[in-house]
Amino acid sequence: MSGANASFEPCKDHSANHRLHLVGYSLIFTAGLLLNIAALWIFLKYLKLKSVVSIYMFNLAVSDFLFTVSLPLRIYFYSGGEWPFGTLLCQVSGSVFQINMYGSCLFLMCINLDRFVAIVYPLRCRHFRRPKVARLLCLVIWVLILIGSIPVAGVHKTTSCHKQNKNITLCFESFSNDLWKKGLFPLVILAEILGFLLPLTSVTYCSVRIFQKLCQSSGTQTLRQKKTIRMLVVNLVIFIICFVPYNIILAVYGMMKANVIRTTPFMRDSVRQALVVTVLLASMNCTLDPLIYYFNTEGFRNTLKKLSKGQTWDSEMGTIQTRVTGNKSYQASRVKPGAKQLPNQNCILPCEGLPFAPSKVYLNNSVQDSEI
Description:
- The protein is of the alpha+beta class and 372 residues long.
- Helices cover 65% and strands 6% of the residues.
- The protein has helices spanning 3-6, 15-47, 52-80, 86-120, 131-155, 177-216, 223-257, 265-283, 285-296, 298-306, and strands at residues 159-163, 166-170, 311-314, 319-322, 347-348, 359-361.
- The chain is globular.
- Residues 1-7, 312-320, 322-335 and 344-372 have low confidence and may be disordered.
- GO terms for molecular function: G protein-coupled receptor activity.
């Protein structure tokens, strides 16, 4: 629908939905920006992306960060009800949402696939769990979602309507039925199959197989098994809360707009209202994904805990590294004459010739899988 034709139509009253989006996106932007900046900083500065899982999680954090920094445009639009930024930024903002949602689905799928290979087929498919393979797979995913965002940008053009004797420019809404039939609906079907159903099926299958494998093991659960189960639960929760409701409602609404399903205007408006709410749930994934990094990545969690104490996680050794600054040299504790000296099993003293070398303090319990 062109802006010239739409200018003769009165603007629909979406003020209630705009207020809901304004509050929701403001909260998501505040939390998402802080959490994802912290995640990217820890991944790049301390963890160095040396494990397969950290590579997938880093790319997931990049996707979330790109969506988060685009939210101020949406917040401004929903605060005033008018889009002043032009067609290009409307297209970019609409595409970034799709890139984030389907990119998140695919990167979460990769994380689950890596755990599936590590636990179910640890020897047969171990060559797939190499950093080079992970980087190549992430590159393929980025290329696919960026190519898929091009037609999405084509349909996210600004529209216009008439309100209080002037034309109002809109974004993210007022798509015509013809546009749904010719452009939007085929894109929705393709995105649903490749970007949602495929990752959902993969995550569900891998989770079931991993649970079966862990249940077959005898004895109490190890630290690695507990962390794996925790990660699978978090991934499934993110899919159930963020992606499943939105994609189901989007498919139903698309079929209604394309007249695949014939229904009453009241029912169509009700489904549209549900879509408004589920869009916010889908956007929440950029604030929930950091839960995966914190609760399921040993190095990430320990780095975050020890930064305030001047300590960092050594991703190569699986140790906590204490940083020594200033001109103070490290000295071993003196033992009084005659006192019984116990071996110190938790630390390794630096060499005498290197007084400023950092000391390595090993965890009391060995890390069974530092990639998780």
